[in-house]
Specification:
CATH superfamily of the largest domain: Tubulin/FtsZ, GTPase domain
Number of domains: 2
InterPro entries: Tubulin/FtsZ_GTPase_sf
Strand order of the largest sheet: 2-1-3-4-5-6
Number of helices: 19
CATH architecture of the largest domain: 3-Layer(aba) Sandwich
Strand content: 5-15%
Helix content: 40-55%
Distance between the termini: 31 Å
Order of helices and strands: EHEHHHHHHHEHHEHHEHEEHHHHEHH
CATH topology of the largest domain: Rossmann fold
Structural class: alpha/beta
Length: about 500
């Protein structure tokens, strides 16, 4: 089975992976891939962007397992892409891993100075350290990450490439597996960790298993250029010594990193670059739970680079030179809908996202009110919605989806293809409003309810397991939303 290992490095990596998970939930499939294995890398274990994405990945994996884990044949549709942790790969090795999507740093909580054992160094070595790092960098506590300092991160993240997680990953590699790296170029963790991971994964002289497989494995990367800026701290905050990140340095750091990549970064078959003019400054939180940025359009577009990379056949990646990709909107507009997407991408993304949105909106808002509907009674949903843990999991996922789709519409570069606050199904899709009039009211809750009843037909649930009930509900909504899109939206 071919696997795709996705290394999401730092807060930006976590946010792109969050958007990718939403696309997979909608039914977007990663081609030529039997299993996705995400690995989030960030020493800030409390980072809000990371913890939110990890919770989402766990929920997605549980829903997928409930839908397809009992010998059910995988297919296209909601939650159909298999996803697993490193610990589930069963390498046969003697080392045991924590069952998590996050690389385990073991709780680094000391200042960088102590991590280097500065006081134990010789006078000459201390002098070299003082030349390479500022006193602020040496005093910075590592439990909030690297605060936009890749030079600090490059030292600490060397521990990753010598870890049991990397040994476990290398042991599991097979011919046909691929790797993809997601990071920012203007921060600390991503800018430092991404080149290190590539270098060590490719190094045939390292102690990692399967050196020939690692050498031949196809690898790509998404590098996020600056696309946001942070609020300037007040003079009082500066005087109080509060932690903050200076986003005025983002462009300088980007230029430096790009120069380094051009001369030193090897081992990638494809590179994807995304960036944008920053909009309204975001709150300046250097780490921990407060670093929880709202979803951004570029993160969703960045997630699509994973799909694109997996579509490229091996022979096109064997030229000996990396393929470089950028992405441009059709126009420099503050609002972006599906019309801005290329035709092939529109087909891959628009229809699944609309179906997921209709599913989430009806399931959360209208299904609890449908007690008299034939489909509701056929599925005994009164009891299922009350007691079924798998359906509660789906309900919670849709709550996170609603938050994500709302956040995409509040940045200066707004994603408006789906209107999250719109309650009328006829107006939820920006570029495909349904015409209504005397003879048709379009997509009403009643029409939706009838389509659900048609979808279930005479299929009545009798004493189902929790997973069987979940499958029944998802299948009904999959068919009903597909019919609605074909009949009312004519969306293809």
């Amino acid at each position: 089975m071919s696997k795709l290992f996705i290394f999401a490095v730092g807060g930006t990596g976590a946010r792109v992976l969050r958007s990718l998970t939403m696309l997979l939930a909608a039914g977007v499939r990663i081609p030529n891939c039997d299993q996705v294995v995400p690995v989030l890398i960030d020493p800030d274990t409390q980072n809000g962007d990371v913890t939110r994405t990890v919770a989402l990945l766990k929920r997605y994996a549980r829903i997928h397992e409930a839908l397809y884990g009992d010998g059910q044949k995988e297919k296209t549709g909601f939650f159909s892409q298999p996803m697993n942790t490193l610990a589930h790969l069963n390498t046969g090795g003697s080392e045991e891993l924590r069952d998590s999507f996050v690389y385990d740093f073991g709780g680094i909580s000391q200042p960088f100075r102590d991590y280097l054992k500065y006081n134990d160094l010789s006078v000459e070595s201390q002098g070299l350290v003082d030349l390479l790092f500022t006193q602020d960098s040496l005093a910075a506590n590592l439990d909030v990450g690297f605060r936009g300092s890749p030079n600090v991160g490059s030292v600490v993240l060397n521990a990753v490439v010598q870890s049991k997680e990397m040994r476990y990953l290398a042991q599991s590699l097979q011919e046909g597996d691929r790797a993809f790296f997601i990071s920012s170029i203007f921060g600390g963790t991503g800018a430092a960790g991404f080149p290190l991971l590539v270098k060590n994964l490719r190094d045939s002289n390292s102690a990692l298993a399967h050196p020939e497989v690692r050498r031949r494995m196809k690898a790509g990367a998404l590098v996020m250029l600056p696309y946001f800026k942070l609020q300037e701290p007040s003079q009082d905050e500066k005087a109080a010594g509060q932690d903050f990140i200076d986003s005025n340095t983002f462009i300088t750091k980007t230029k430096t990193a790009l120069s380094y990549y051009a001369d030193n970064l090897q081992g990638l078959e494809a590179m994807y670059y995304l960036g944008d003019q920053p909009g309204q400054p975001l709150a300046n939180h250097p780490g921990r739970a407060e670093q929880r940025n709202q979803a951004h359009l570029l993160e969703m577009l960045g997630a699509l680079s994973v799909v694109h990379f997996m579509e490229v056949p091996d022979n096109q990646l064997d030229s000996g030179q990396p393929l470089y990709h950028e992405y441009g909107l059709k126009s420099d507009a503050p609002e972006v809908d599906f019309g801005q997407l290329p035709a092939d991408m529109r087909q891959e993304v628009a229809r699944p996202l609309i179906q997921l949105h209709y599913f989430a909106r009806y399931f959360l808002k209208h299904t609890p009110e449908d007690a008299k509907a034939p489909y509701y009674e056929a599925g005994d949903l009164s009891a299922q919605l009350r007691n079924n843990r798998a359906l509660r999991e789906l309900n919670d996922f849709f709550g996170e989806y609603n938050e994500w789709i709302r956040e995409l519409g509040v940045n200066q570069r707004r994603y408006t293809a789906i209107r999250p606050e719109e309650m009328d199904f006829n107006k939820m899709v920006a570029d495909k409003t349904v015409e209504t009039g005397i003879f048709s009211k379009g997509i009403t809750p009643g029409y939706f309810r009838d389509e659900l009843t048609k979808a279930v037909g005479k299929d009545t649930l009798k004493n189902p397991t929790e997973n069987e009930a979940l499958r029944w509900v998802v299948k009904a909504f999959e068919e009903a939303t597909g019919e609605i899109l074909d009949k009312k939206l004519q969306y293809s």
